[in-house]
Automatic annotation (TrEMBL), chains A, B:
Coiled-coil regions listed in the entry: 225-252
Keywords: Coiled coil
Keyword Transferase: no
Keyword Kinase set for record: no
Gene3D superfamilies assigned: 3.30.70.2860, CinA-like, MoaB/Mog-like domain
Transmembrane segments: none
Protein name, entry field: Putative competence-damage inducible protein
CDD domains: cinA
Superkingdom of the source species: Bacteria
Organism: Gracilibacillus thailandensis
Every MoaB/Mog domain range: 7-174
Stated family: Belongs to the CinA family.
Amino acid sequence: MTEVKAELISVGTELLLGQIVNTNAAWISEQLADKGISVYYHSAVGDNFNRLADVFREAGKRSDLVFITGGLGPTEDDLTREAFQHISGVEIIEDQDTLNKMEAFFAKNNRMMTPNNRKQAHVFKGSKVLHNSVGIAPGIIVDYNHTLWVFMPGVPREMKAIMTEGVLPFLTDTLALNTVIRSRMLHFIGIGESQLEYELRDLISSQTNPTIAPLASEGEVALRLTAKAENNQEAEQLIDQIEIKIKEQVGQYLYGYDNIGIEKKVFELLKQKQLTIASAESLTGGAFASKVVDQGGASAIFNGAAVVYQPFSKISALKMSEELITAYGTVSEQCAEAMALHVKKVYQSKIGISFTGVAGPEELENQPVGTVYISICDASDQHYTEKFQFNGDRQAIRNRAVKKAFELLFYHLKP
Amino acid sequence: MTEVKAELISVGTELLLGQIVNTNAAWISEQLADKGISVYYHSAVGDNFNRLADVFREAGKRSDLVFITGGLGPTEDDLTREAFQHISGVEIIEDQDTLNKMEAFFAKNNRMMTPNNRKQAHVFKGSKVLHNSVGIAPGIIVDYNHTLWVFMPGVPREMKAIMTEGVLPFLTDTLALNTVIRSRMLHFIGIGESQLEYELRDLISSQTNPTIAPLASEGEVALRLTAKAENNQEAEQLIDQIEIKIKEQVGQYLYGYDNIGIEKKVFELLKQKQLTIASAESLTGGAFASKVVDQGGASAIFNGAAVVYQPFSKISALKMSEELITAYGTVSEQCAEAMALHVKKVYQSKIGISFTGVAGPEELENQPVGTVYISICDASDQHYTEKFQFNGDRQAIRNRAVKKAFELLFYHLKP
């Protein structure tokens, strides 16, 4: 199969003003990737005749398949058809089926069909008209100058309906797509993006099928392996082979696949081992607990949390000793360990985890912003405590502390 | 002022695969619109040297100001600098300040700085280097062939910091922007978007300067008033005049301006009234507490929270009566009121607030998913309890409950 080069053009001044986010481009791209069609460019352009014509002309030169969304409505602003006619010379005609449908729609809703509405029934001569099951303006596919042009309304719901019901089946038939693309995500924690890439540098640079793409997110990193093949089985085999090589280098940091997150992984490990957990949180303010409760079925492993944001609430809610707090301060290993132990008792869980530190903006107890202690107290009252120095603002420090806790729990719990 | 024509180029194959939505383009566009700078094109292009070079070349021909985000990281995929060098001939040099900062960062975090990291300190000869206050790779501004080129990392948090702290102030100075555009956000809670628009329909449709743009977000709604004028004072006056008319219609729902959120407003009201609060949370799992702690200085008003996710933890951590839970169940007005009262006592706060309900995916105690009780117990032990039926999935229900609590607290506390 020769590769099909696609590009997407989103039409609408509201995109250029930042009033709406271009979710259409991402959604269409994902659908095309699944079909093995490579998207090389996204563009957004306003409702301006000359600029539309320029962008269309450029797209026709470089792509086999051009998707245009938006600018097909009834108002004078809607210029997509006219601009395409201008660059191609393809005639605009009225589609009788669409017109009938529109008239029925307006009659049914007791609304007057204003003359400008007729414009929504305009299509191109020789085009394929795709029914819009959730709105009025149809999709249009037209073959011009060795490029296939696909026009769809910009309203996401209508675009998705036309794409799913009309465009994708049409493309599958027409392009005789016999390549499948499969992806697998490998998730790592405890290793930074640059170190991961460094360890795998030879593999990444020599690899073309599957490709290996590193993706960093807060506190963890993933690799996306994408294989092209003639069928799913072959694609999966290609991915399996490269995964083995990756594991040889960095397997000890791998925690899961595809849509899993470290929070879910820890949840699964706790569940497997029939362990329950409770958290004592100072600077994180319940953010760890909230992440645990994000998991459906959390009650199997989560007993609760004490957000002890004040020194006195550590005493009143967790029955910690005032002497300990006075002697060591709240930002200390001793305080972290006592919090983890006491929350375990008060909430009757097998494991206790605690967070104490300085989220900022000000220092606390002469400790700099970003200082955080995390302590795990296990089923036999053994303590595992670490001190961290996180960067960033208040939110970033709190988020990093929560993420780090899941990392520590993962390494603590994993077989 | 001659019009400045800007365009945005987002670099990254993950955009073209539909793995991420291009929120950067919308955000940058909005900032530029505020400055009176017109954005004519958005593009997204993958990490491919030739295609990057083509897109850069085209942009240089048609725009005065080109923003490029992404492709500045440490890996071999990151080709933005190289592609720009190729089309411009502008030399790449190493920025010593950035390098020093990076070395300090890695040393502080006890991490190895792998050689590929040095690349993040690469800038252009003669460029202005903009400090990245939340990450490593700096922003870069370079003037080449009558176009101003602005390079920023693709990570939204870093891009936003560099844009706000470096790029926008620089553009204001350099372009001597002499039309001012001023915006004011008015935030409302307790009124839906469609009702707000209905109440203000005549005002919104007749208004051109300032414009009135309604913006809905989860559980609240805002109006963005945007005025163009020759100077700030004139713009502010235009906005003041329209604000008065808006307040006549819907002033009772207005809670604040600009960057305030309802969480901050409630924080300020508690602080003004010298009240402290503690929360008892079941389905919300600490999410309310975490939102309170998001505010810097939260310790002035927040004593803590008991995340009592199990019936027995309500008894062990909050000393609630087992009989009450047995008699009424945990998803009940009685349980909600007892939680609010007991958390107030255990955490020694003036106000207690509680959440109990069914986040799903399963029903609980024969109550449907989405049932939530929120109860406020005030300084004189008076209870204010409401029952809600929220729509959506587990996360949506929990988020709505937390937002609703801030709304209830706002109306409870406001003068």
